[in-house]
Write a structure and sequence with these properties.
Blueprint lengths: L6 E5 L6 H13 L7 H4 L7 E8 L5 E8 L2 E6 L2 E2 L3 H4 L5 E4 L5 H4 L2 H15 L1 H22 L4 H8 L2 H30 L5 E6 L3 H5 L1 H7 L1 H7 L10 E6 L2 E2 H4 L2 H23 L4 E4 L8 H11 L5 E5 L14 E7 L3 E5 L1
Parallel strand pairs: 1-11, 1-12, 6-10, 10-11
Antiparallel strand pairs: 2-3, 3-4, 4-5, 7-8, 8-9, 12-13
Helix pairs in contact: 5-6, 6-7, 6-8, 8-13, 13-14
The chain binds adenosine-5'-triphosphate and magnesium ion (MG).
Length: 341
Amino acid sequence: MEFSEGINLIYGQNGVGKTSILEAIHTLSISKSFRAGYKKNIQKINSDTMSVVGIVSGKVEKIIAYRKILNQKKIKINEQVVEKISDLVGVFPSIVLSPEDIDIVSGGNSARLMYVNKILSISNKDYLYALARYNKIIKLRNKCLVDNKHYREVVVWDEQLPLLAQKIWQHRRDFFEHFNALFKEMWTKVIPSEKVAIKYKSLKIEDQKNLLFELESRFEKDKVRGLTGVGPHKDRINFFFGDVDIKDQASQGEKKIFLVVLKVAEAKYLHMETNKKPVLLLDDLFAKLDRSRGKKILQLIDNKYQTFITTTDNSVESYFNNFENVNFIKLKKNNELCSVA
Ligand SMILES: Nc1ncnc2c1ncn2[C@@H]1O[C@H](COP(=O)(O)OP(=O)(O)OP(=O)(O)O)[C@@H](O)[C@H]1O
Ligand SMILES: [Mg+2]
């Protein structure tokens, strides 16, 4: 298939293979699918092999090839074998919006924390290492708590936490300062009448400085639960419409528009931080959005990023009347390409 540098609208009925195309592109980006349970989904059932090859044009053209024979995975960039997945990450960055992502807006705090951790880990190696080390120590500490160890055995882990936690907190504060400004700027273009906010709450700075003391004073409580009750993993992120928490009250369409703007802001953030333009993979973008919001989102994207949108609704074609660089791809059953305009 050939795609436009601007917007690619993939249209077709349920089950024709629209999401599979996005999965293939995503596989070239980070060597796996974005769907839950991707391990069983990515390869055709009853097949031993799979292969995805993409030519990515930019300043320098790259051919990325992903092949799997039996359970052996091989990735090549311009015929050079990629030894570590981390060497693939960032070569062809992508941002996905999939129906399951609604959890970031509707679900519990952990989904939002995971979302922010992912963005920061991609854009900031210092954060990635600090978070990995921090999570490992918390796991070991929790095991000590479950094993009913004495404080003098747990403190060995506690002493390593403050430095890592400080780093994580500092990077998160910097992130939210930058990201909130980007998000608000974009939101204002879509729904200027509605006030929104992203609120980030962590331990008070003075208490952060005394994390070791906080850990010690909570020790008995933590032991009962077998979990560490203080630290960056307990930070809270909430999204608001006015004074109302979105996850509690917003309608499905309101949640969806918030999520979409979040993803476009993520694209801009990563672009600015890494100096690489990601492609947007927006699965079922228009579901739950009314016509006016659907169009506003397209204006927000407006050819800034190469974008792949899937939809089952052929009436959305009219949203693109004033757009250049749009490639309409219609799929028929059995993945047969019906027409590419
Ligand atoms: N691993 C697999 N092996 C074989 N077939 C699969 C596999 N995974 C998914 N399929 C099938 O491939 C077809 C295309 O799935 P896909 O999710 O891409 O459809 P879609 O066009 O996005 O549909 P929808 O509009 O419902 O989202 C479906 O019939 C699905 O059951
Ligand atoms: Mg789909």
